[in-house]
């Protein structure tokens, strides 16, 4: 009985240990305890065999428990997916479970980037290296790049010494900084598509079992489902958001169309009723609840309503001209008024810090209606300009070449157009580079309307007839203003004043000679009349006022002699007659040379320090001769 009791007791002990979940070490110690208790050789052998069976059972139980834990973890992961709200939280939980179940130092997950054609780190657990957490692996590079490229799991017992993979400096540096040895990576699959890789790694060399690879693969499948579900959920949410936005946009668009249509009808009816720009500006201001100002292409104000004077900035207007949209800057909205690509002017809106898209489009539509009105006005103006141009052409015909020319009829036609030829008028002839002559003609016609005159073309030049008695001032102002408008030099010759139709042809001829002289004197881009040309004007003019020329050149010296009884004019004439020689001049005057010097110093003070330069000297000498001739003619 004792022989049977000992093995039975040992078996009972082993079963109790198994039932109590004792570790394998306790089971393995049972044969030693039996031998110590005096068991014979046969009994010890039987107990050892029984212990081996118990250890096998222990291993099976451990495997079952491990599988149970894995199944619980997978079940928990599936539960997390069922209540998916935050993709990052689910992925972090999967990576954390992978690290726990496989008992590794670190676990991480990478996702593929189809644009960059690589895979990048998305989630890590247990990592301590910033460089490792920011790694990007090219397809086929390293263990992870190879998994991402081939869609097959790969394991390395010691990655740093494993030559099966394509090593790169960045990957090896990251792995070395993290201190990794054994690495296992499995693909993340969505259908046939590989979207990333799930990893488990130790900081010491480790061989991963097939069970470990299968477990990590199951977790990777769950992670792929989570990513795909989140993507579908995001797409669904995005679609719903887009649908809601589209519905709101359609509703707003419908309202905007209705309002825009109503506004367009109101503005168009105004234009068709013959309303002016003032009426249109007032209607736009009422529609948009702000102040409105309309400007011509040169910046001059055409109309204003509910606002003070305001000028569009050059930058805003240029931007609006470029894209055809209203531009907001400095609390002012600016929109170019365009007819196709041609700029007609601008419209400015004040008092509206912000505009909805519908109001902005309404403002831009108002600019279109304003363009229609300006085009209509221009059409009327062009018709009127044609009539005015025809009258100007008739006025400039030489009376000698047209004996039947009726001056009274011409004056009557002029009065019907608001031009009173009984007043003094000036004639200007304008010229610029050939490519800009059409624009010069248009701009000159606008000037004529503003000045109450006539404009047209004659013999290839633009001609302007306007009221005024200062042709030189007119010419200079025209040259400056039109050059700014055209962005190119404009040359203007002018003559006047003249009264009545009979003098205008002569004024035109004189203006044309003045223009020709300006070009010949290399003064292209300037404006002048005959008097401004100095002695050349005296030679060119057929109505030249010699006295005015002498006064303009010698006036200060003549006045000084008259007031003080000095002989500066006589001294100056002797100086020039003697070829600029002081010694010969003093002999001719019978005075000391110092007296001549003192008198010429006084001349320099009166005429300016450049009085004796070649150009001034020629002007002065000619004026002295003309003054002497005039005195002789008067008996002086």
Question: Helix and strand layout, with pairings?
Answer:
Blueprint: H1 2-19, H2 24-28, H3 30-36, H4 41-82, H5 87-102, E1 106-113, E2 118-125, H6 130-133, E3 136-138, H7 142-150, E4 154-156, H8 169-178, E5 183-190, E6 193-201, H9 210-272, H10 277-288, E7 291-296, E8 301-305, H11 314-323, E9 327-329, E10 332-339, E11 342-350, H12 357-395, H13 407-416, E12 425-431, H14 437-451, E13 454-458, E14 461-467, H15 471-486, E15 491-498, H16 504-520, E16 527-529, H17 535-540, H18 546-564, H19 568-577, H20 582-589, H21 593-607, H22 614-633
Parallel strand pairs: 15-16
Antiparallel strand pairs: 1-2, 1-6, 2-3, 4-5, 5-6, 7-8, 7-11, 9-10, 10-11, 12-14, 12-15, 13-14
Helix pairs in contact: 1-4, 3-4, 4-5, 4-9, 5-9, 9-10, 9-12, 10-12, 12-13, 18-22, 19-20, 19-21, 20-21
Tally of separate helices: 22
Beta strands, count = 16
Q: Major sheet: size, sense and barrel closure?
A: 6 strands, antiparallel
Structural class: alpha+beta
Specify Rg, calculated over alpha carbons.
52 Å
Measured as a percent range, the helix fraction is: 55-70%
Into which percentage range does the β-strand content fall? 15-25%
Describe the structure.
With 636 residues, this protein is of the alpha+beta class. Helix content is 58%, strand content 16%. The chain contains 22 helices and 16 strands. The strands form three sheets. It has a six-stranded antiparallel β-sheet. Strands 8-7-11-10-9 form a five-stranded antiparallel β-sheet. Strand 15 (491-498), helix 16 (504-520) and strand 16 form a beta-alpha-beta unit. The longest helix has 63 residues, at 210-272. The chain is elongated, with a radius of gyration of 52 Å. It starts with a helix and ends with a helix. The model has no long low-confidence stretch (mean pLDDT 80).
């Amino acid at each position: 009985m004792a022989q049977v009791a000992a093995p039975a007791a040992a078996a009972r002990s082993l079963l109790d240990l198994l039932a109590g979940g004792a570790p394998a070490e306790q089971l393995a110690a049972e044969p030693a305890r039996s031998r110590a208790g005096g068991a014979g050789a046969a009994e010890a052998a039987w107990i050892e065999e029984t212990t081996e069976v118990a250890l096998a059972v222990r291993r099976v139980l451990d495997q079952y428990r491990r599988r149970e834990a894995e199944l619980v973890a997978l079940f928990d992961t599936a539960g997390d997916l069922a209540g998916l709200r935050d993709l990052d939280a689910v992925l972090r939980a999967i990576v954390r479970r992978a690290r726990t179940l496989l008992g590794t130092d670190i676990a991480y997950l990478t996702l593929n980037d189809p644009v960059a054609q690589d895979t990048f780190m998305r989630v890590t657990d247990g990592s301590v290296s910033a460089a490792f957490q920011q790694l990007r692996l090219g397809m086929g590079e390293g263990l992870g790049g190879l998994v991402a490229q081939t869609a097959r799991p790969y394991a390395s017992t010691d990655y740093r010494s494993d030559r099966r993979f394509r090593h790169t400096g960045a990957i090896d540096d990251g792995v070395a900084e993290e201190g990794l040895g054994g690495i296992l990576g499995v693909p993340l699959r969505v259908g046939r598509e590989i979207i990333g890789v799930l990893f488990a790694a130790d900081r010491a060399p480790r061989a991963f079992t097939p069970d470990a690879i299968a477990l990590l693969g199951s977790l990777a499948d769950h992670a792929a489902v989570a990513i795909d579900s989140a993507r579908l959920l995001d797409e669904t949410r995005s679609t719903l958001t887009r649908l809601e936005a589209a519905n709101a946009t359609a509703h707003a668009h419908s309202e905007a169309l209705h309002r825009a249509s109503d506004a367009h009808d109101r503005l168009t009816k105004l234009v068709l009723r013959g309303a002016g720009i003032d009426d249109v500006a007032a209607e736009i201001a009422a529609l948009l609840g702000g102040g409105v100002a309309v400007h011509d292409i040169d910046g001059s104000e055409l109309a204003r309503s509910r606002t003070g004077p305001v000028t569009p900035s050059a930058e805003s207007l240029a931007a609006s001209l470029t894209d055809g949209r209203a531009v907001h800057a400095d609390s002012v909205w600016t929109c170019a008024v365009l007819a196709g690509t041609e700029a007609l002017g601008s419209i400015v809106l004040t008092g509206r810090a912000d505009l909805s898209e519908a109001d902005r489009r309404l403002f831009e539509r108002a600019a279109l209606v304003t363009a229609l009105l300006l085009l209509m006005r221009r059409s009327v103006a062009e018709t009127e300009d044609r009539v005015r141009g025809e009258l100007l052409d008739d006025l400039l015909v030489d009376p000698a070449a047209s004996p039947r020319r009726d001056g009274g009829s011409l004056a009557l036609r002029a009065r019907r157009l608001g031009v009173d030829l009984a007043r003094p008028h000036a004639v200007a002839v304008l010229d610029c580079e050939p490519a800009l002559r059409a624009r010069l003609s248009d701009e000159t016609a606008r000037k004529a309307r503003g000045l109450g005159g006539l404009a047209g073309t004659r013999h290839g030049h633009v001609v302007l007839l306007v009221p005024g008695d200062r042709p030189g001032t007119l010419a200079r102002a025209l040259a400056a203003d039109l050059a700014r408008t055209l962005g190119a030099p404009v040359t203007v010759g002018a003559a006047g004043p003249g009264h009545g139709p009979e003098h205008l042809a002569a004024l035109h001829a004189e203006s044309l000679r003045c223009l020709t002289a300006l070009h010949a004197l290399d003064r292209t881009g300037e404006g002048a009349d005959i008097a401004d040309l100095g002695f050349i004007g005296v030679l060119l003019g057929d109505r030249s006022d010699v006295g005015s020329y002498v006064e303009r050149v010698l006036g200060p010296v003549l006045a000084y002699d008259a007031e003080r009884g000095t002989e500066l004019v006589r001294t100056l004439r002797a100086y020039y007659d003697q070829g600029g020689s002081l010694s010969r001049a003093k002999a001719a005057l019978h005075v000391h040379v110092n007296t001549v010097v003192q008198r010429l110093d006084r001349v320099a003070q009166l005429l300016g320090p450049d009085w004796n330069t070649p150009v001034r000297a020629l002007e002065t000498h000619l004026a002295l001769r003309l003054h002497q001739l005039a005195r002789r003619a008067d008996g002086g």
